[in-house]
Amino acid sequence: MKHTARLLAVAAASLTALGAQAQALYGELGYSALEYQENSAAFRSTIKPGMVRGIVGYELSPNLAAEAMLGLGMGSDDVRVGGVTVKGKVDNMVGAFIKPKVKLGNSFELFGRLGATSTKVSASTSGFSVSDRGTGLAYGFGAGYSFTPQLSINADYMNYYDRKGVKVDGITVGMGFRF
To answer: What one-character DSSP code corresponds to residue 9?
Structure first.
């Protein structure tokens, strides 16, 4: 426990020092309303779980950034399959993106995201559960509005996974912070 506290203190100090050197490092925290669709010959369903998403990004230039993402599932959704209620959720997501962007005035920004995510989903019913992880192309677009040089709000649509009859996409609303 002491080692973890020391590691966190060193990490926080490092981020503060890095932020003091340049305003290029930023973070975002938001809530994602997701839709998980599965369409195969044997099974068709849609669930709508939630996720908390965090992004850490670094501006490579005024019009391009690199980002890392971590999403953690918040709640599940139920679907009826053959008379049985199944709880489905997105457990977690990890992703990396390139973010092209354009400023419209001093405060408004439009952006796109292109990269890859690894998504873990699970489904359970009384006494039985199954999970799966898939990695694929991810893309999306959004907008942000800066209240101050350090604080902004943002909203985006992302398609996190779309392969083999399974699609995970969603809309996220969040806050942005410049370090």
So the answer is: H
pTM here? 0.81
Strands 44-47 and 25-39: antiparallel
Give 7: exposed, middle or buried? Use CB within 10 Å, 0-12, 13-18, 19+: exposed
Q: What is the pLDDT of residues 114-161, one digit of tens each?
A: 999 999 988 788 777 788 899 999 999 999 999 999 999 999 999 999
Q: Which helix (H) or strand (E) segment is 7 a member of?
A: helix 2-21
Element (H, E) at 19: helix 2-21
DSSP string, 63-90: TEEEEEEEEEEE--EEEEETTEEEEEEE
Query: Which pLDDT value is given to residue 131?
Result: 81
Is 109 within 8 Å of 143 (Cβ atoms)? yes
